[in-house]
Amino acid sequence: MTRTNDLHGARTHEEAPGDAARWALDSWTMTRREFARWARNPLGPLIGLLFPVMMLVMFALFLGGSMTVAGGGDYTEFLVPGLLVLTMAFGLEGTMTAVTRDLERGVLDRFRSLPMASTAVLVGRGVADLIESVAGLLIVLAAGFALGWRWHGTLGAALAAVGLLLLLRAAMLACGVWLGLIVGRPELVMAVQILVWPLAFTSSAFASPEAMPGWLGAVAEWNPMSATATAVRDLFGNPGAAGTSWASENALFLAVLWPVLLLLVACPMAAARFRSLSR
């Protein structure tokens, strides 16, 4: 079904039930567009991939000797799962920047005028970022292994940990697309990104909630990033997964619940916002 915008002359194309193949093809075309953009300008993605490694080296080598883990254990093994979680969360900025740049340059309006699935642009952006996230995970895991991190569980548990990390990443990507469509300008992305840092540092990514002041430890235990970090540490068999609060004891449940709730909110809101552009 095609709908014409009388004010701007743009057309949006809404998917019919039989258009699944066309939707998948359009989404893959948009994904390939992102790959081509990375190939033309590899510096940005490269910095994004290496930034978590730099943080890992700084915390593991410079601060690791003074850090303790509740219940004992090696701090590097505690740190790597937490930093993997932050790597998934910090991708929010890159997604927002790409969306706002396309929006500001009118690229999204041009795509909306083409005979293509209306949400393929957003899906292509998300798939490309998710593939980049897999590369980021592998790089951080390799760097952690070089610094002494090891996983001690089964292969199935390790794959489940990676699945939780990618689920969190998918939720953050959906939020990034939605927020990017809302803020509209690249210079406003930093204002949103600044809000992510307090959320990251009030989690259990770098320190055990047991080592924090009572009120801050309670906040950290209920932080969505802490839920994923605790569940991933448990699945990898790394120290720091134990806890006495309900949130700590049910971290795996919360690590699935929080991202799913974010996806259920952000995905339809992003699609609705995209369809309403230039109206």
Q: What does this molecule look like?
A:
The protein starts with a strand and ends with a helix. The protein has one domain (27-275). The chain has 279 residues and is mainly α. The protein is 71% helix and 2% strand. The chain has a two-stranded antiparallel ribbon with strand order 1-2. Mean pLDDT is 80; it is low at 1-18.
Would you report the number of β strands? Answer: 2
Say what oligomer this is: single chain
The largest sheet is: 2 strands, antiparallel
Uncertain parts? 1-18
Helix content: over 70%
Strand proportion, as a percent range, falls in under 5%
* Average pLDDT: 80
SS-derived structural category = mainly alpha
Give, in spatial order, the strands making up the sheet with the most strands.
1-2
The SSE order reads EEHHHHHHHHHHH
The coarse silhouette is elongated
The total domain count is: 1
Individual helix count: 11
Round the Cα radius of gyration to an integer and report it.
Answer: 20 Å
Query: Whole-Å distance between the termini?
Result: 18 Å
What would you say about this model in short?
The chain is mainly α and 279 residues long. It has helices at residues 20-40, 43-63, 75-104, 107-112, 120-146, 155-183, 189-201, 214-222, 224-236, 246-249, 251-275; strands at residues 2-4, 11-13.
Topology readout:
Layout: E1 2-4, E2 11-13, H1 20-40, H2 43-63, H3 75-104, H4 107-112, H5 120-146, H6 155-183, H7 189-201, H8 214-222, H9 224-236, H10 246-249, H11 251-275
Quick tags:
single chain, elongated, 2 strands, mainly alpha
